[in-house]
Write a structure and sequence with these properties.
With 111 residues, the protein is mainly β. Strands 2, 4, 5, 6, 9, 10 and 11 form a seven-stranded mixed beta sheet that branches. Strands 1-3-8-7 form a four-stranded antiparallel beta sheet, with no helix packed on it. The radius of gyration is 13 Å and the shape is globular.
């Protein structure tokens, strides 16, 4: 089992930016896919994007052009760069590797 720890969440104003990190307990390069999800209050989890090794990335239409996913295998870390944030981006954000999920980090977009 891979243990995942998200960090970097917090309060940000609309049109601001945040970068989330997801650090794995094991070397992540052996995993083909690393994914980011979010769950807003009262809503189902939403897939945001997937990064493969060697570096192809796919995004949900709802975040394409605003969010970027990249990974640093040497640091066992994946990142979610979020720009032009909107109040509707408020959610708990999770990373996923294989069948393992992190505990999530809360991002609140509000003025």
């Amino acid at each position: 089992q891979v243990h995942l720890m998200e960090s970097g969440g917090g309060l940000v104003q609309p049109r601001g930016s945040l970068r989330l990190s997801c650090t794995a307990s094991e070397s992540i390069f052996i995993f083909n896919f690393m994914e980011w999800y979010r769950q807003a209050p009262g809503k189902e989890p939403e897939w945001l994007g997937t990064t493969t090794d060697p570096g192809t990335t796919y995004y949900a239409d709802s975040v394409k052009g605003r969010f970027a996913i990249f990974r640093d295998n040497a640091r066992k870390t994946a990142y979610l760069q979020m720009n032009s944030l909107k109040p509707e981006d408020t959610a708990v954000y999770y990373c996923k590797v294989g069948d393992d999920w992190g505990k999530g980090t809360l991002d609140t977009v509000s003025s």
